[in-house]
Amino acid sequence: MNYELIKERLAPCGLHCGKCFAFEDGEIKNHSRQLKISLGNFDVYAARFVELLNEPAFKNYPAFKAMLEYLTTEGCKGCRQEKCKLFSNCKVRDCHEQQGVDFCFQCSQFPCNNTGFDAHLHKRSVDINLRMKEIGVEKYYEEVKDLPRY
Ligand code: SF4
Ligand code: SF4
User: What are the helix (H) ranges across 1-150?
Assistant: First the structure.
């Protein structure tokens, strides 16, 4: 994948929007929609399977279905298209435009204390950016494109 297309998937902080559960064209949303279709009217059977299969796990189907429903709702187009729905404190989104860079590692102030992230996310972003700086954006994307984000 070329640099411009990769930018649609990797946020300026380095997080992989393409693997985010909220990403409109992401694997999680697409698989969830497919699973919802495949399950059809499973509610009725889940209730029956509690006794037929003597399997209490089926009692949890309503909660599972609610989660699946949530995962199929309209998603986010990615950090560069709209404001992140997950990290409302993120300052990188606006800052990278002011700094005129695509990714934090390209910024003269990297690593900075202006991300707005908590310690966990800040470290993750710094680690990702250090790796991109080391091997380049395209090679970094190859490394992570088939890995789960979580
Ligand atoms: S911008 Fe935020 S909510 Fe949207 S896909 Fe990226 S990480 Fe997920
Ligand atoms: S100042 Fe910090 S948050 Fe802003 S682009 Fe540079 S490294 Fe990223």
Answer: 3-9, 27-39, 42-52, 61-71, 92-99, 119-135, 137-144
State the ligand closest to the CA atom of 105.
2
Domain ranges of the chain: 1-16+83-150, 25-73
Yes or no: say if 95 and 114 are a contact pair by the CB < 8 Å rule: yes
Distance 110 CA to ligand 2 centre (A): 6
For the CA of 24, the closest atom of ligand 1 is: 5
How far, in Å, is the centroid of ligand 2 from the Cα of 109?
6
Nearest-atom number in ligand 1 for the CA of 23 is: 5
pLDDT digit string (tens) for the chain, length 150 residues:
899 999 999 999 999 999 999 999 999 999 999 999 999 999 999 999 999 999 999 999 999 999 999 999 988 999 999 888 888 899 999 999 999 999 999 999 999 999 999 999 999 999 999 999 999 999 999 999 999 998
Ligand 2 mean position to 2 CA, how many Å? Answer: 23
| pTM, two decimal places | 0.87
